Amino acid sequence: MPISELQISRIRNLQAPSFSPASRINIISGQNGSGKTSILEAIHFLSTTRSFRSNELRHLVTQGESSALVFSRVESSTHPLPLGVERTLEGDVRVRFDGRSLDSAELASLLPVQVLYSGTFELLDGSPSVRRQFVDWGGFHADPAFITLWRGFKRALKQRNSLLKYGKIDRFQMQVWDREFVSYGEQLTRHRQAYIARLLPEFKAILAVLLGDVDVDLKFYPGWDSKRDLTAVLADQFVRESAQGFTLSGPQRADLRFRCDGVNAADRLSRGQKKLVVSALRLAQGQVFRQKADRPCIYLIDDLPSELDEPHARLFCQFLEQSQDQCFITCVDPDTLTEFWSPDTDLALFHLDAGRLLSR
Ligand SMILES: Nc1ncnc2c1ncn2[C@@H]1O[C@H](COP(=O)(O)OP(=O)(O)OP(=O)(O)O)[C@@H](O)[C@H]1O
Ligand SMILES: [Mg+2]
Questions:
Q1: What pLDDT does residue 20 have?
Q2: What pLDDT does 154 receive?
Q3: Are 205 and 257 a contacting pair, CB within 8 Å?
């Protein structure tokens, strides 16, 4: 559901911008430090109650203020509906949509966002948890059952780890949590595998256009030797787990592996190539989402031109244009990206000057 109105209050240096985004392409330009990434952070906050730049809310909230608030209207099949998200430094979170409160899963499903920013490379060279989040974003949006499996698995893992950590292992209790761990863990893994199987051809097709001659292979690793039964793996590793105090193998160790020319892709690709690979992954993820949910997502793309030469930036914009998603794209120079769109695209240009937003 595209956002048709945004009012941002008490986020970083932003001077309470209030604006009506275009339903398709929004380009926000401005000098360094003008607040471009902060606008994208505010939209991410609206859809997840969190920043993508910092885990700590106090960094997002304007210095000297005690809460951040983003109010919006999102399009529905009939008319725009109000959505507001507020978080205080004391820890209160308020999410109101069309007169009722939403929990975090309902909010995430209402406004699915894809982010590309400087930390995006972590998808290739960061910790496995970043890649698990990527896979689980897809799983979550592909099937309503996914969140129940994910929560059930997390609970079993937490209980197992706590028994292992404190050393007083009640065998009966352990068997109960082992059964939950295996049952939820195997189902969760099947969903993750099915999602990657769905994503892979889309990713390859987009990558072939964006990166032409470079072939990147993507494989899902479930977190244990998948030829073996998870129950048998738990039994085998129990003595080592008791000594180390936590669960060793299992879906909590799942990962994606990217290879290029037979080596780890992160060690082979240039920065621009990495950006294109990660962009292809995010574009593919949006495409799979649209096919399933029959509605667009919101793309937040920070500094699109950085690392990319003009032909690649143009190709990337063409994918965004074809996608039907609502895009918020930032860049320093107001003139760089304006030429890349067909004349009938719903396009809005904004310029930021020291936290103040001006339409162009
Ligand atoms: N909590 C805060 N309160 C007030 N101002 C802040 C806060 N956090 C950051 N700032 C300031 O907000 C400004 C906006 O930062 P932002 O990263 O959004 O700029 P940008 O336009 O994306 O810059 P760049 O082109 O360098 O990426 C910076 O000048 C920064 O110093
Ligand atoms: Mg920035």
A1: 97
A2: 97
A3: no
Residues 222 and 256 grouped into a single domain: yes
List the chain residues with pLDDT less than 70: none
Give residue 13 CA to ligand 2 midpoint distance, Å. 12
How far is 308 from 289, CA to CA, in rounded Å?
26
pLDDT tens for each residue of 148-168: 999 999 999 999 999 998 877
Are residue 210 and residue 343 in the same domain, yes or no? no
CATH number, domain at 261? 1.20.1050.90
DSSP 53: S
Q: Candidates 15, 27, 34: which one to mutate for ligand 1, based on the most atoms within 8 Å of Cβ? A: 34
| Residue of the CA atom closest to atom 18 of ligand 1 | 35
Q: How many domains would you assign to the chain?
A: 2
User: Is 326 one of the annotated binding-site residues?
Assistant: no
Judge contact between 4 and 75, C-beta under 8 A.
yes
Pair 159, 181: CB distance under 8 Å: no
Q: Which residues form ligand 1's pocket by a CB distance below 6 Å?
A: 12-13, 30, 32-38, 59, 61-63, 332
Q: Ligand 2 center to residue 77 CA distance, Å? A: 34
